[in-house]
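Mods, move this if it's the wrong board.
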Amino acid sequence: MMKRLTFTFLLLCLLLTAGQAQNRVTLSGYVKDGASGEGLIGASVSVQELPSVGIATNEYGFYSLTLPQGDYTLLVTYLGYITENKPVKLGASQKLDVSLRQNATTLKEVEITTRKEDENVHSMEMSTLKMQVAQIKSMPALMGEVDLVKAIQMMPGVQNAGEGTSGFYVRGGGADQNLILLDEAPVYNASHLMGFFSVFNADAIKDVQLYKGGIPAQHGGRLSSLLDIRMKEGNNQKMEVSGGIGTISSRLTVEAPIIKDKSSFILSGRRTYADVFFGLSSDEDIKGNDLYFYDLNAKVNYTLNEKNRLFVSGYFGRDVAATKDAMMNWGNATATVRWNHLFNDRLFSNTTFIFSDFDYALGSKEEESEFTWKSHIKDYGIKNDYTYFLNPKNQLRFGLQVTYHNFMPAEVKPGKKSYVNALKLNSTSALESAVYLSNEHQITDRLTVDYGLRFSRFTNVGPGDVYLYDEEFETPVDTVKYSRFEKIKTYGGLEPRIAAKYDLNEVSSIKASYNRTLQYVHQVSNSTSAMPFDVWIPSSTYVKPQMADQVAAGYFRNFADNMFEGSVEVYYKWMDNQIDYKDYAEILLNERLETELLRGTGEAYGAEFFLRKQKGLLTGWVSYTLSKTERTVPGINDGKPYAPRHDRRHSGNLVLAYQFTPSINFGANWTYSTGGAITMPVGRYEYNGKTYPVYSERNGYRLPDYHRLDLSATYEKPRNEFKRYSSSWTLSVYNAYARKNAFSIYFRESEDDRTKTEAVKTYLFGFLPSLTYNFNF
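Not the wrong board. Structure tokens:
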């Protein structure tokens, strides 16, 4: 298959290059932030004299245009920056780096024009959400802690996992069907404090992009979405220190050049301090408790020469929750080493070495029941990606990826005097690999198509044991043992991707996409929130890969000289090998977990409406999603379709920001969604003197509707032009009208009448204010 793809790529290159004029030359380079020197992702580079010629910079800010010899005016635009016009005499291939300044900066040496504001209409991307970090920071936040995942939950097609949680669902997919990448390393648990906050420190983030559909061929491994997060590279012009002191946490970021214009670093950390206040308590039961999390982001980059650049980045974070009798901690560690190489002015490569580790530990400190329970999933990977700027109408991407997964579901070690038994569940490993090829092809001035193919392969390998079961698939009758790296089970398949855009006119376009995705690793959880003790398992002899096909179409239009940006998208997704649990399944510490799992099909469809105001003192957006998700799994609900827990028919969001004065701005978020699906007891019966509940059909009832209003006000102290120090105060109110949204519902015998059962709703947050002080110098 790899040979066939390579041959196809070479043949495609030959066909596309045939007949190209010999007097064409190439203009290439990087688009950078003029203040920090960081590469700008997705900046638009076009030629004024050739309206149909243009390209967007890649993930590292690189662009390449092949043009006939001549004199041109290069237009470089980026959201929030001043457009720069560069006259170019193109007689031979040359390199041209362009630095952009933010809108507040006046550049005398170039002509300033209105920035290009219609990328949403004329770019290839659909079912894609881009958010600037500055916009995320301006939104009201829980306890003043800025959270990019909660900001994404305010967009169409994205549902939150519950009150206060950082888990999310995209277009009917499960929480584990989202691929979250931080500088290309996968993050398996993106939550702090049991899901109330995400692990992403906004001070260290440069770019956030969520793909709900039309996922590029270079990415795979999850069914529903790709959340691609890129860390800052560090200011290579001057030292900069920023941070904040909030109600629940404090943070500090330092970035500076190591060698100006050549190398820089960024170091960003934050920590909560509830444990500090516990220590000051006079209550001895509280005094000995710990409850905190910390994050550390670090990144260094070095420009070796014009054709080679090196990046090293890492993330380290951990949560600790402990009492005198018990403890729990969990955390992520990721590391990437990336090498950018320019073979020539058209061929760009990126080679990435990846490490990711998610682990957790639970335990009891009491002597008689002392134990430690540990679990982890570790990834070691390498990616080799290429971008070939064939000509202004064709941009090829191709490459390969290999990942080694190691799964350790659980290992329990008892204390010396403990009655707890030692236990170690069957650990296993797997090799996941893929090759891909795609091409963004501008067929006419109005029609552009991006087509690609990905071939993925997954091999479950030893050491490990595989049970052989009886006909009822309940009792093991034999065991097959596999040695280290011995193949246990192999899966694979083709994943076609195609997207098309047709410009109707200067202000509107229609887009469509289709993609197939395969998922080989799965999360086993009984919780709707991102709990730290969920277990990840690989596809194996009895657990097949999940598969999804999605089609989507959309209409995109801007109004009032690009003041308003609007879109309507519809989608349909059908899924196979969806995993769900038997009734009364035993998930915890089950060494034969496959006997508790059932597999079936699913479908999700819906419509998403989005309107954003981009100019003026009042900015923001309104979104509405109408959707439905169903699963059909033999052995559940009598084989009839049922709604998964994350199915919600209606959801809407309103996000507003108002610049009241140059120093004062206000923000407001309002969100609404119908309640998630739950299974409830509808009766009970007695047998041998004991009472047993009778439950409804699977997820046959709904939680109460969810809605909440958040408010914020920020005062930014005017900066003296002769001083570098600046500061601001932000007052946020979470749940301004104190809505008691259900966190969970449990059932108990009625205290007044024991023959009846009553439902009890628990909620987390009422009216919750917070105050944050931010600084920068």
